[in-house]
Design goal:
helicase, 3'-5' DNA helicase activity, single chain, mainly alpha, two-stranded parallel sheet, 47% helix, Rossmann fold
Length: 209
C-alpha cells in the first residue's frame, strides 16, 4: 500500500480551494494567506508523488512554523530519529501518539510525587526534609564520620572567629547534632535507623548521637 492511501481520491477540493476557503473564513492577513498557500502547495506536491518519502516529509514538517513552535527540541529529535525506523506516515503517527501518552503519564506521576500524593519512597537530604513529616522514615548512614561528619569540630577545640571571617567556618558537632534531631523527628509513626558494619573492609562505629 502507498503511504498516501489515507488521502481520499474522491475529494472535490484542490489545495487552492481549501486555501481560499480557510482564508475567507478566518479573515487572515496577506502574509498569513501567503504562508497557508505555501504550506498547501507543499502538501499537494507530497500527495502527487508515487511514494511519500517519510524522511523528507518529516524533515519538512518539523520546520513548518506551527509545528516548529509547538514541538520542543526533544520531540523534534525523537521524530527525526524514529522516522528511519518506520515505513509509513501512519505508523510514525501511532508511535508519536504512544510516546506522547507515555510522556503525559510520567508527568502526572511526577506531579503526584511532588504533591506528596504518590505511594513511593522519597529520597531526601536532612536539610530538604525540614518541616516535612512522614509515617515511615528510614535514616541511613548513622555512623561516626558520616553523622557527625568527619569534618565537624567541637566549638571548644578550635578558634572559630578567624575561620568565620574567611567565610569558611567548619561544621560543628552541635550543628551535626541538630541535623540528627531533624532527621529523627521527621517520623510520625515508625523510625528506622541504619548504618553499615563495614566500609572498604574497615569496621564502622555507630554514631555517638
Amino acid at each position: 500500500a502507498k503511504s498516501t492511501d489515507f488521502v481520499s481520491d474522491e475529494t472535490n477540493y484542490t489545495s487552492e480551494k481549501l486555501t481560499d476557503f480557510i482564508c475567507k473564513e478566518k479573515k487572515v492577513s496577506k502574509k498569513e494567506m501567503a504562508l497557508i498557500k505555501s504550506i498547501f502547495r507543499d502538501i499537494n506536491e507530497f500527495i502527487k508523488t508515487e511514494e511519500l518519502n517519510i524522511k523528507v516529509f518529516v524533515n519538512w514538517l518539523v520546520e513548518t512554523p506551527k509545528v516548529k513552535k509547538q514541538l520542543i527540541d526533544e520531540e523534534k529529535d525523537w521524530l527525526l530519529k524514529e522516522v528511519s525506523n518506520v515505513k509509513t506516515l501512519k505508523e510514525l503517527i501511532l508511535k508519536y501518539k504512544a510516546a506522547r501518552t507515555l510522556k503525559e503519564e510520567m508527568a502526572d506521576k511526577l506531579r503526584e510525587y511532588d504533591n506528596n500524593n504518590y505511594n513511593a519512597v522519597y529520597l531526601l537530604t536532612i536539610h530538604s526534609s525540614k518541616g516535612l513529616g512522614y509515617k515511615n522514615v528510614f535514616v541511613k548512614g548513622i555512623y561516626k564520620n558520616s553523622l557527625p561528619d568527619y569534618r565537624s569540630v567541637d566549638k571548644e577545640s578550635i578558634e572559630l572567629q578567624p575561620l568565620i571571617e574567611q567565610a569558611s567556618p567548619p561544621t560543628t558537632m552541635e550543628e551535626q547534632r541538630r541535623l540528627m534531631y531533624v532527621a529523627l523527628t521527621r517520623a510520625k509513626e515508625n523510625l528506622y535507623v541504619t548504618y553499615p558494619r563495614e566500609i572498604n573492609d574497615k569496621p564502622t562505629l555507630v554514631s555517638p548521637f
